[in-house]
Amino acid sequence: MKTSTFTQLAFCLLSSVFYACNSSHVYYLDATSGSDQNNGTSPRSAWQSIEALKQISLQPGDKILFKKGEIFPGILELTGKGLSQSPIIIDAYGEGNKKPCIAGNDTSMYAVRIFNSDYFTIQNLEISNTGKERKAGRTGLKVECTDYGISHNIRINNLTIRDVNGSLVKEEGGGSGILIVNGGDSIRSRFDSLTIENCHILRCERNAMIWSGYYDRKNWYPNKHTIVRNNLIEKVPGDGIVPIGCDSTLIEYNLMCDSPDILPMTEAAAGIWPWSCDNTIIQYNEVWGHKAPWDAQGFDSDYNCQNTLIQYNYSHDNYGGMVLICNSGNAGNYSCGNIGSIVRYNISIGDGIRPKETRQGMFSPSIHIAGPVKQTLVERNIIHANHKPSDAVDRTMITSDSWDGYADNTCFRQNIYYAAEPSRFDFTSSTRNAFEENIYIGQFKNQPESQKNKKAENIYTEKVLKESADGYKGLHCLMDSVILKEHTLHYIKPEAIKTFFQSIF
Questions:
Q1: In the chain, what are the domain boundaries?
Q2: What is the residue range of the signal peptide feature (predicted)?
Q3: What share of the chain is helix, strand, coil (3-state, %, to 5)?
Q4: Do the beta carbons of residue 386 and residue 417 sit within 8 Å?
């Protein structure tokens, strides 16, 4: 009897899967030749507008295809529960390379919204959302999971998201290319295995991609297993990639470049950084040309985070330095602080070139440690500080200062600090700083270790400085590269930089 019942149950499950896979539909949209009076089920009978999609309910295996080269004005809102073997797919069809564009209207908060969905892929589209005036909170793509439970396997692939004019002020609500939202009071909700890859985010204000979720440690329900990979972020003035309320996020092979200097003087922003996250891995990324009035580092391990790992990244020519490691000592009991950050095998060239005063004057150390961070390891990084553009620009290598408290138990091990001009270290009142075999090439005030390593200096001079004094040519030998949307992403080769340090130590 039990075997029979099990067999019947298995048959029912297989039947439902077979039915789902074989009852799927493909819907076509053609803004020029289509008509909303058509049935939408073939290119010849395509619908014309986004409005026509309101008459369907997406089922596992369904596809919505937009014709290439066409512009579809309005707001696209979609909900669908696919299955692992039959996801729902939003895609393009037709000839040519020009993606179909979903163009939001003047007042729209988003051009595309995916709400409470599972096993859902959106790819190969362009999204724009430009209003007559900047609007706080405006985004291009909003992916939301509210009072739903767990949203599985949302994939955002090869989208171009451009020209979103949100607010430039964070406290007003900012704006973004991609906004990921999870929450809910009746049913706590989160994403599991959300992936953002191969996208191009261009001229979006204020930020490229940012999350909004459960940040309070008293109500901790983080998104799990997020992947952000192979994305190009270009001409975005604020924050690049900011997961919030996530656990086990992987951020790799992303390029953020050429940020415009348009943020108000009140604003702080940086390239890639987590907030209220655990076990974030940030690796093989490049950030250059960040010009925020405050911070403007390539990378950041921010507060309410545990076990952030920043490795094999390349930061150069940013107004701020390579990395910020920070914790607010006055955050309250919703925060766990900043514990266990590791920054290793990264390269900074020509960072810290902020040309104007900000909150603390001309402030742009190569490494900034702010507030009561704990158990931080900064190991085997190369900081190559070139000549600054003016005498007023900050030349500090490391500053460890107060944010309602000071850092404790920070280890700096086997890093290379090169300064083309006299530099300094400023550890203020931070406690239990450990310095182990670091290399100092140049003149430094308050240098934490007095011994010299002539072997290391000679190797660095021979392999780097003789190739080019500015460090780019010599240190690029430690990097690999890949093309992202006709831009070149440089990242650190693990085997090359490890071999380089082994030749020194």
A1: 282-505
A2: 1-20
A3: 15, 40, 45
A4: no
